[in-house]
From TrEMBL:
Name by which UniProt lists this protein: SCO0930 family lipoprotein
Organism placement in taxonomy: Bacteria, Bacillati, Actinomycetota, Actinomycetes, Kitasatosporales
Keywords, in A-Z order: Lipoprotein, Signal
Signal peptide interval: 1-23
Region (Disordered): 42-63
Length: 304
C-alpha cells in the first residue's frame, strides 16, 4: 500500500513537471515545437505600469505627448509611445518580422482614431504577412517597444540608430529635420514641408512669371513666406534644383518659389503633419514634391 502511494506521488510530480515545461516561458526566440509564440506584453509590476500592448490590444485614440527631451511624440490611447523604423523604406510594407516584431510589436490599426495633435487623414494601415493590419502614420508603419513598460517611456529612442519615437507626421522625433522635407499625405500625396515640418502652400492668385505676390498685409497675417533653401536641400527632398526660384518680396525679404510659384506656410497649422491650409478659399493648395519645371505654366498644387 505504501509502495503504491509513493508511486502515485512520483507520477503526480512528473505530470506537474511536464505541465510546467509545456506552459512555461518559451526559448529566447519565442518559439516552441516549431511554432512562433505571440509577442507578449512586458509588465513592470514594481512600477505599477501598464503593459506594452500586444498585436491584439486596442490602440484607441492616437494623440501627441510633449516629451521633455524629444518634443512632440505620438502615443496611443494608453499613453504608450509609438515608434517608426528607419528601415521601412518600401511603401505599404513593414520590414520588421519574426524576432524583430517580438521586440517591436506592430501597433494594431483596428480601432485607432486621431485625437489632439494628430491629423486623422494621415492615419492608414498596412497588411502584415499574417493578415493583421498595422497602423501607419503618413505611410510609416508604427510599433511599440517591448521594454517600454508604462506611459511616457521612450526606451526605444535611437536603438541601433534606426528606431525613433514618432513625431506627429511620422518623422523621427528628436532628429533634426531637413531644410526642405516631404510629407506623405494619403489624401494629397507627397507635399513639401519647411525645416519645422510645416506644410508648404501656393496661392493661385499669385503670378508665377514674372513672379508677383498677391498676398498683401492682411494676407500675411495668416500666411508666412517660405525662407530660401539651397540646391542641395532640393536634391535631398527629391526635387530638381532648377525647380527653385528665389525672389525678393515687396518688403525686401527673400522668398522661395517652386516652379515660379511662391511658397508659404499657414499659421493655422500648429504641428507637423497639419494641412489645414489646403483649399482655403479655393485658392490655397499644398505644393507637390513632383514638380514639372516650366516657369509656372504648370501649377505644382496637390489638390485633395
Amino acid at each position: 500500500m505504501k509502495r503504491n502511494s509513493r508511486n502515485a506521488l512520483l507520477a503526480a510530480g512528473a505530470a506537474l513537471l511536464t505541465l510546467t515545461a509545456v506552459t512555461g516561458c518559451g526559448s529566447g526566440d519565442g518559439a516552441q515545437n516549431g511554432t512562433r509564440a505571440a509577442a507578449q506584453p512586458v509588465v513592470n509590476a514594481s512600477s505599477g505600469g501598464s503593459a506594452a500592448p500586444a498585436e491584439t490590444a486596442s490602440t484607441g485614440e492616437v494623440s501627441v505627448h510633449a516629451d521633455n527631451s524629444l518634443g512632440d511624440i505620438v502615443v496611443d490611447g494608453k499613453g504608450m509611445t509609438v515608434y517608426v523604423y528607419a528601415k521601412d523604406t518600401k511603401p505599404g510594407a513593414s520590414n520588421c518580422e519574426g524576432q524583430c516584431a517580438a521586440q517591436w510589436p506592430p501597433v494594431p490599426a483596428g480601432d485607432a482614431k486621431a485625437a489632439a495633435g494628430v491629423n486623422q487623414e494621415l492615419l492608414g494601415s498596412v497588411t502584415r504577412p499574417d493578415g493583421s493590419r498595422q497602423l501607419t502614420l503618413a505611410g510609416r508603419p508604427l510599433y511599440y517597444y517591448a521594454k517600454d513598460t508604462k506611459p511616457g517611456d521612450v526606451a526605444g529612442q535611437g536603438v541601433k540608430g534606426v528606431w525613433y519615437a514618432s513625431a506627429p507626421d511620422g518623422w523621427k522625433a528628436g532628429v533634426k529635420r531637413p531644410a526642405l522635407g516631404v510629407l506623405n499625405d494619403p489624401k494629397l500625396g507627397k507635399v513639401l514641408q519647411d525645416k519645422d515640418g510645416r506644410t508648404l502652400y501656393l496661392f493661385t492668385k499669385d503670378e508665377p512669371w514674372p513672379m508677383k505676390t498677391a498676398c498683401g498685409a492682411t494676407c500675411l497675417q495668416k500666411w508666412t513666406p517660405t525662407a530660401p533653401v539651397s540646391a542641395a536641400d532640393a536634391t535631398a527632398a527629391g526635387l530638381e534644383p532648377k525647380a527653385l526660384f528665389t525672389f525678393t518680396t515687396p518688403n525686401g525679404t527673400s522668398q522661395e518659389a517652386f516652379n515660379c510659384w511662391p511658397g508659404y506656410t499657414f499659421k493655422g497649422d500648429s504641428r507637423p503633419g497639419d494641412t489645414n491650409g489646403e483649399n482655403v478659399g479655393g485658392v490655397w493648395f499644398g505644393i507637390k514634391q513632383e514638380i514639372v519645371v516650366d516657369h509656372g505654366r504648370t501649377v505644382p498644387a496637390a489638390k485633395g
